[in-house]
Amino acid sequence: MDHAVQLLLLTLAAGTPLVYAALGELVTEKSGVLNLGVEGMMLVGAVVAFIVAATTKSPWLGVAAGMLAGAALALVFAVVTLTLQANQVASGLALSLFGVGLSAFVGLEYVSVVIEPIKPLAIPGTPDLPVIGTLLFGHSPLVYLSLVLFAAIQWFLFRTRAGLVVRAVGESPQSAHAIGYPVVRIRYLAVLFGGACAGVGGAYLSLVYNPSWVEGMTAGRGWIALALVVFATWKPWRVLAGAYLFGGVTLAQFQAQALGVEISAQYLSMLPYVATIVVLAVISRDAATIRLNAPASLGKPFHPDG
Amino acid sequence: MPPRLKLSGITKAYPGVVANAGIDLVVVPGEIHAVLGENGAGKSTLMKIIYGAVKPDAGTIAWEGKPVAIANPARARRLGIGMVFQHFSLFETLTTADNIALALEGERAGPSLPARIRDVSAKYGLPLDPDRYVHTMSVGERQRVEIVRCLLQDPRLLIMDEPTSVLTPQAVEKLFGTLRRLADEGCSILYISHKLDEIRALCHKATVLRAGRVTGDCDPRRESSSSLARMMIGGDLPHPQPRTAQPGADALVIRDLTLPADDPFGTTLSAIDLTVRAGEIVGIAGVSGNGQKELLAALSGERLLDDAAAVTILGTPAARLDAGARRALGLGFVPEERLGRGAVPEMSLAENALLTGWRERMVAWGFVRAQTVREYAAETIRDYGVKAGGPDAAARSLSGGNLQKYIVGREIRQRPRVMIAAQPTWGVDVGAAAQIRQALIDLAGSGVAVLVVSEELDELFEICDRLAVIAQGRLSDPKPVADTNAEEIGLLMAGSFIHAGAEGHRAFSPAGVLGLD
C-alpha cells in the first residue's frame, strides 16, 4: 500500500513540469499562435529560478523569477511573430535554440551549487493520516499549484467570456477582428501566459524535482509538452493525463534500470517519450475531435488590414 | 430629420488601385438602399469603411447629422451599425449562443441571451436553436445566425453584403420579407449585390459604382435590368450565342456512385446516377455543402472509389484511376478553387500551363520545352482575353476573373472530350462571366460533353441543356431546362425529391437545407 502511494507521488512529481509547460502552450495555441520555443523557455526559467534561489536563499523568489524569465522570452517571440509578422515555426525553433544556449551560458558558474529545495506543505495536525495524508501533503506546493492551474484553465477557457474570446481568436482571427476584438493584443497575452507557465515548469525542475542546475536539464520535456498539446487534441484534461503518463513511465523506467533489466539504458530512457506519444496518438485518431478542438488559425499570421 | 448616414468624398487607395474615389452616399431612415456594381467596383471597400474595418484616406462620414470617425467595428456597433458578411464571420466550433454572445457587450451577453435569441428569431421568422454548433448548419441557417446577431444589437443601419449568393430562390423570398419588415420599423438597410432582379424587387434606391466611382443614382423600381446593367458595366450585357449540335454518344457516365464523407463536416454521397452525352451541357444545381465538393473529388480523381465502373469516361471505367490517368482519357477539369487547386499561386502562368498541359508536347526526354510552354501560355492569354503581364506573371497576381479565364482556356486548349467545370463564374465580373459561359457553350458545340456544377441558377438556365440538383449527397433525375423552372429547381434544392425514410447522413428536413424551418 505504502509502496503504491509512493509510486503515485513520484508519478505526480515527474509529470508536473510537463503539466505547467503543456497547459501554458495549450492556452497559447488556443489563441492561434504556435510557439515552438517551449524547451528554450523552460530552460531559461530553470536557470534563472535556480540562480535567484541560490542568491537570495528564497526558493519562492526563484519561482517568481523563473516565471518572469519564461514570460520575457515569450515576449521576444510575440514581438517577432505578432508585431513583425515573422514565421511562427522558424521563430519558435530559433527561440528554443536561443534558450538552450543562453541558459547554458548564464548557468556556467552554478553547475555544482547546492540549494535548499522547496519543502512539502506542512499542515500541523494532519501528518499522521496514513494514505491520504501522504498523498495530500507529501508534495511540494508547486505540484498542487499545477492542479489548481489545470482547473483554472479548464474553467477559464470553457466557462468564461474571456476564454470564449481566446478560442474565437484562435479559430478565426478575421472574424474576431470583424466583430471588433483586438486580436493581436489577445494573442500577446496568451503567448506571455504560455511563457510564464513554461518558466514555472522549468523552475520546478531546477528547484524541486532535481534541485540543481545541469545544462540542458529539461531533456526534451519542452518538445514533449508541444506534442502533448497536439495529441491531447487541445483538451486540458488529456494534457494532464498525458503528463502523468509520461511521469509514470519515467518512473517505471528508473525502476527497471534499478532492477537491472537486460535492456540498454538508452532504450529505457527513450521509453517515456515513445510511450506518451504512441498512447496519445492512438487515442486522438478521431478526425472529428481534432477538427472540433484544433484552433483553425494555428500558426498562421494575422494582418489586421488583410 | 437628418439622414441616417451621409458619406461625402470617401476616398481609399491601395497600392496600384483606387478602390473608392470621392464617393457620396446618403441613406435615410427606413430605406433599403442598394449599392450596385461589378466585382472590384469598390462596394466591399466602401462597406468596410462604414463598418470601421478599413480607414478611408479622405472624406467624411456623418451619422444622424453628426460627423463621426468610425475607428473600428466595435465603434460602428455602438453607433448602431450591423453588418452581415458575404463570407460569414462565424466561428464554426462554437454554438449559436456563443457566436452571438461574442458580438454583444457585457450584460447583454449574460444568461438571458438564449431567451432573447428565441424572441428575436420568432419575431422575424428566423428560427434558431441557441445550443446548436455552427458547423452542423446549412449556409442558410448560418446566415440567420448572422442576421439575428445583428438584430440583437438593435441596429439602425444594417449592411448586407451579397446576402443571397448562397440561398435558394425560396429562401431569398423569405429573407426579403424579413428585410422589408425591418425597414418598416425604421431600420435603414444597405444592400450590396450585383443581381439586378433582386435589387429591382427589394430596394427603394440604388447607387451604382463602377471602378471606384459613383456612376449613377436611381430608383431601381423604375429601371429595367438592362438600364441598370448599362450603369453598372458601362455597356450592354453580352448575350450568349445559341448552338445547334445534337447530343451524341454517352461520354461521362456515373453509375451508383456512393462515397462516405472523409471529413466530419463533409457529406456522404449516395447512389448518384448521371449521364452526360457528347455535345450537351448538363448542370448540377444545389446549395453548397450538399455534396458538390465530394462529387467533384470523385469525378476528378482526387478521391478514388472501389467500384471502377462508378465513373466511366468515354467507355473506360475510370473510378479507380488517378487524376492524371483520367486526364489522359480526355477529361478536362476546372476546379472551384482557382488558387490552390486550379493554379499554384506563386508559379507563373506558363508553369501553371505545364501542370495540366504537359501532354501537349511540352516535355521531351524528361526535359521541359520552355519555349513551347511559354507559347502555349501566351496563346491562351491572347485567345481568352486574359489581362495579365504575360506568361511570366505569377498566378496570384491576376484578378479572380482573369485567372479563371486563363484556367478555362488552358483546359479547353488541351482539346478535352469531357469537361467538368465547378462554379466556373463564381466571383467573376459580369463581362468575364459571359465570356467563360460562351467558351463552355462553344466547347459543347464542338462535340464535347460538359458538366457544370454551379450555385448560380440563372447561369445554369442560360447555358445548360439538362439540369439536375444535388441535395444531402443525393442527385435528382436531370430534367431538360425547357421543361422546368427556377421554382421547381428551388424545391429540389431543398431536397423534395428525397423520399421520406431515405438514409441521409442527417435527418431529412427540406426546410433545414433551405434554411426555412
Explain what this protein looks like in three dimensions:
The complex is a heterodimer of chains A (306) and B (517). Chain A has a single domain (2-293), classed as ABC transporter involved in vitamin B12 uptake, BtuC, CATH 1.10.3470. Chain A is built from 13 helices and no strands. Chain A has helices at 2-30, 38-56, 59-83, 88-106, 131-137, 141-159, 161-171, 173-178, 183-209, 221-231, 236-258, 265-283, 287-293. In chain A, helix 1 (2-30) packs antiparallel against helix 9 (183-209) and helix 1 crosses helix 10. Chain A is globular and about 60 Å long. With 517 residues, chain B is an alpha/beta fold. Chain B folds into two domains: 5-233, Rossmann fold (3-Layer(aba) Sandwich); 239-330 and 419-517, 3-Layer(aba) Sandwich (Rossmann fold). Chain B has helices at 43-50, 73-79, 96-103, 113-123, 139-151, 169-184, 196-202, 225-233, 292-300, 323-329, 349-357, 370-383, 400-412, 430-445, 457-463, 486-493, 510-514; strands at 5-14, 17-27, 32-36, 58-63, 66-68, 81-84, 157-161, 188-193, 205-210, 213-218, 250-259, 269-277, 281-285, 311-313, 316-317, 331-334, 363-364, 367-368, 418-422, 449-453, 466-471, 474-475, 479-480. In chain B, the strands form five sheets. In chain B, strands 13, 16, 19, 20, 21, 22 and 23 form a seven-stranded mixed β-sheet that branches. Chain B has a six-stranded mixed β-sheet with strand order 6-7-8-3-9-10, with helices on both faces. Chain B has a four-stranded antiparallel β-sheet with strand order 2-1-4-5, with helices on one face. In chain B, helix 6 links the parallel strand 7 and strand 8. Chains A and B meet through helix 7, helix 8 and helix 13 of A and helix 2 and helix 3 of B.
